[in-house]
Amino acid sequence: MLKTRFxxxxxxxxxxxxxxxxxxxxxxxxxxxxQLAEPVVVYIAPELxxxxxxxxxxxxxxxxxxxxDSQEKLFRSVFNGxxxxxxxxxxxxxxxxxxxxxxxVMRDFQFSTPGMSKTDYYEVWVKYSxxxxxxxxxxxxxxxxxxxxxxxxxxxxxxAGAMREASRRAMRDAAAAIVxxxxxxxxxxKYFAETTTADSGRHSP
Length: 205
Known about the structure:
Blueprint (H helix, E strand, L loop, with lengths): L1 H16 L1 E5 L16 E4 L2 H4 L2 E4 L6 E5 L3 H13 L3 E4 L10 E13 L1 H4 L3 E14 L6 E12 L6 H23 L4 H18 L2
Parallel strand pairs: 1-4, 2-5, 2-6
Antiparallel strand pairs: 3-4, 6-7, 7-8
């Protein structure tokens, strides 16, 4: 009986040592930039809200990285900083036909641990795209970009904690990429210039 109990305890410890579970639940500050007056709808699709990355190698550590509501918080903060009026929508059928719609899409998530890369860092790469459309129509722009974050191993931080911090930094890098580069894309620049001109004409005496 004692041998059986010892075997169960050891097996549980080995299993936990070979599995890491990371839940991202962080807040992001709103960027301080000049805001556009154009009201926008930000569509947060179900797959973005439920995104979970699983890595299950034949040998080595299994990783499960749960994004939870961190994606919603990220894009809410970014676009609240960039636009004066922002509405988040979680159902595609609820998008108004004439709305300016921004749809963030998560294309890929990759990571590296010190054991994989033989370095001192946990590293994360996240590939996104940001779509601009009018209502539910065909995208006027589908802009891809990649964000990066890393956290040094050690310092008393657990492996899960280091991966969480590297992921947080990658998402903050994504926020910076949107703020600095999205409105510089020719299609976005043209669209918002035209909507601003049209709004000015409608409100002129």
